[in-house]
UniProtKB/TrEMBL annotation:
Sample GO molecular function, one term: RNA binding
Gene3D superfamilies tied to this protein: Winged helix-like DNA-binding domain superfamily/Winged helix DNA-binding domain
Ranges of compositional bias, category Basic residues: 8-20
Span of domain ANTAR: 20-81
Coiled coil stretches, renumbered: none
One Pfam family it belongs to: ANTAR
Superkingdom, taxonomy of origin: Bacteria
Natural source organism: Paraburkholderia fynbosensis
Name used for this protein in its record: ANTAR domain-containing protein
InterPro entries assigned: ANTAR, CheY-like_superfamily, WH-like_DNA-bd_sf
UniProt xrefs under SUPFAM superfamilies: CheY-like
Chain spans, region Disordered: 1-23
Membrane spanning stretches: none
Length: 89
């Protein structure tokens, strides 16, 4: 093999490796976003059931609480789910 061929293969591997890492990071972000959505949905259902609210009103309550506490909605939702699991035995 010539030096040029080795250099080209090395560059190709480097680009391919970077693309692979970028894909992995993208997939990881999507999975995290999906998990957050599930927690928010769970908390919304808990609020709906416990307060007799519509889904829209329950979600709005979660948003309002998150804003008042200056936290992300998934944090508030996680607290609700955790409390519900603790109290449901």
């Amino acid at each position: 093999m010539t030096e040029t061929t080795v250099t080209r293969k090395s560059k190709w591997r480097s680009r391919n490796s970077k693309a692979s890492r970028a894909r992995e990071r993208y997939i990881e972000r999507l999975e995290q976003k999906q998990a957050k959505g599930r927690v928010i949905q769970q908390a919304t259902r808990i609020v709906m059931d416990s307060r007799g609210m519509s889904e829209e009103d329950a979600y709005q309550l979660l948003r309002t609480q998150a804003m008042l506490k200056r936290e992300q909605i998934e944090t508030v939702a996680g607290e609700i789910v955790k409390a519900h699991e603790t109290l449901s035995f």
